[in-house]
TrEMBL record:
Coiled coil: none
Enzyme Commission (EC) number: 5.4.99.-
NCBIfam families listed in its UniProt record: rluA_subfam
Alphabetical list of PROSITE patterns matching this protein: S4
Full protein name: Pseudouridine synthase
Keyword Isomerase: yes
Catalytic reaction annotation: a uridine in RNA = a pseudouridine in RNA
Family: Belongs to the pseudouridine synthase RluA family.
Pfam families on file: PseudoU_synth_2
Keyword Isomerase applies: yes
Amino acid sequence: MRELTIGKNDAGQRLDRFVAKSLPLLPPTLLQKYIRLKRIKVNGRGAKRDTRLESGDILQLYINDEFFDKPSEENIFLTVFRPQLDIVYEDENLLLVNKRPGLVVHADETEKVNTLINHIQAYLYQKKEWNPKWENAFAPALCNRIDRNTGGIVIAAKNAETLRIINEKIKNHEVEKSYLCITVGRPKPVEGKIAGFLLKDEAKKQVAFYRRPIPGGKTAVTLYRTLETRGPLSLVECRLLTGRTHQIRVSMAEIGCPLLGDGKYGRGDVNRRYGETRQALYSYQLAFPFPTDAGALNYLRGRVFTVADVPFRDKYFPAPETP
């Protein structure tokens, strides 16, 4: 419990608004809940949220110490009161989360609070599985990233050992990531490999594809196979042998079959015709073949995790109805 004394400059304010300004890390919904539960008292008694404070009033705040800290990049997760996560799999070491399109994985220039990592850290904090005050340096972290407008499975490590192992397995190509996408056009051949070099323009946040090595270019290899075609659209499965920024999007565009809804590498006229503003791309399957020792994560060897609901697949390539 902590106490705050109201000075003359704070007098006249509503209780809830004063506490909100004093504790910016405390989520508004949780603040209102604490007032209802009388965990925020004025002069030793419960008070309503619209109580007007007077000079000399003493507030008793029965609130976790973390909420009294100053906001920073490390503790902003505390402002997430109700984490929104679609959990595909969870154990004591990791989380597999189905990220929805439109959500950023980490904070960027457009979003600081509503990020996947903040929701994950808030979830683990509220489950009492993790608290930054218990750790010297470690915080739950993501092992892979997905573009804002792409959906799919993201791996989150709950401890440093898991983070080290998964990062090593990804680096050594021992984690298989498979994507579903819808292309404008029919890939030829229907199954194949796209290999080249990608060069990112940081200013434009756009990637260019080259068939031959280029200074600064990174090797990119994508396997694809066409699953179904209907009219001008094809449902294609892609597997990454390398993990580069925008790899599938720019690679499929290179062979003349850009992704439906892709505003950077796609066809604007087709996107507008179908009313799509996000690329039809989903990291729908994750496999852990682990051909070499995985230490504490050996129990995951051979496991495959799949997202059942891929919205654009069900929209454009629905499964036939069973009689």
